[in-house]
Amino acid sequence: MRSGQRQIGWFGGSFDPVHRAHLALAWAALDGLVLDEVRWVVAGRPWQKAGRRMAPAEDRAAMVRLMIEGEGGDPRFVLDDREMKRAGPSYTLDSVREYQRERPDDALWLVLGQDQLDGFTSWHGWEELVERMGLAVAARAQDEVKAPAALLDRPHRLVRLAMPTLQWSSTEARRLAASGADASPVVGDTVAGYIARHRLYSEN
Ligand SMILES: Nc1ncnc2c1ncn2[C@@H]1O[C@H](COP(=O)(O)OP(=O)(O)OP(=O)(O)O)[C@@H](O)[C@H]1O
Ligand SMILES: O=C(O)c1ccc[n+]([C@@H]2O[C@H](COP(=O)([O-])O)[C@@H](O)[C@H]2O)c1
């Protein structure tokens, strides 16, 4: 690591909606890796969820903003909307290449949960991604972090984030909202208020 080099967490997600485990994961990365910033990159068109109805990207981004600027947020959390502005599938590699053209001196860490690490070698250009950035991974359903075999065959940097296993998910938040129940135990009061006011997920 070069001295003075900024350490940046790259936290991509559909955030449909953002929930409390996302916030815990961002904090685990910020504290665990002593990052200067965590960029919350809202996926415009997550191609692996293409068949699914999703809240508009503007609403998903608005909820992320409420989460990172509200109680439990931090000025080092930054909303990155580049994928919302781009046409076509949201490939992380395209965004990372673009960012590294803007800030070539920053060191990047891809922040993700074990479920995404399981499918990581299906990502567009994953081989180049692991050359460009380290992986910072949190356990999810089970209390283990395990790299897929194809990743182990290549040079890569992987750190496990210290974070308790949390069962919260966007799926659970959508299910609660759709049934008219209070989603705040999963997403917090502010995001739950936004979901209710904008009637998101009421027809899921
Ligand atoms: N409870 C959790 N523990 C650890 N990581 C999580 C958790 N929830 C989400 N993540 C991670 O956050 C990132 C963004 O997740 P995403 O926006 O898809 O939320 P999700 O809860 O997984 O959504 P859905 O339930 O709709 O599949 C992914 O890397 C995912 O692994
Ligand atoms: O670049 C890819 O091919 C790719 C494939 C699957 C997922 N991702 C990214 O992984 C992040 C988490 O995705 P998701 O579906 O769990 O919201 C989000 O930023 C996606 O754009 C990226």
Give structural notes:
This is Probable nicotinate-nucleotide adenylyltransferase. InterPro entries: Cyt_trans-like (IPR004821), NadD/NMNAT (IPR005248), Rossmann-like_a/b/a_fold (IPR014729). With about 200 residues, this protein is of the alpha/beta class. It has a single domain (about 5-165), classed as HUPs (Rossmann fold, 3-Layer(aba) Sandwich), CATH 3.40.50.620. The protein is about 35% helix and about 15% strand. The protein contains 9 helices and 6 strands, in the order E-H-E-H-E-H-E-H-H-E-H-E-H-H-H. It has helices at about 20-30, 55-70, 90-100, 115-120, 125-130, 150, 170-180, 185, 190-195; strands at about 5-15, 35-40, 75-80, 105-115, 135-140, 160. Strand 1, helix 1 and strand 2 (about 35-40) form a beta-alpha-beta unit. The longest helix is centred in the first third of the chain and has 13 residues, at about 20-30. It is globular, with a radius of gyration of 16 Å. The model has no long low-confidence stretch (mean pLDDT about 95). The chain binds adenosine-5'-triphosphate and nicotinate mononucleotide. The site of adenosine-5'-triphosphate (ATP) has 18 residues, from helix 1, strand 4, helix 4 and helix 7.
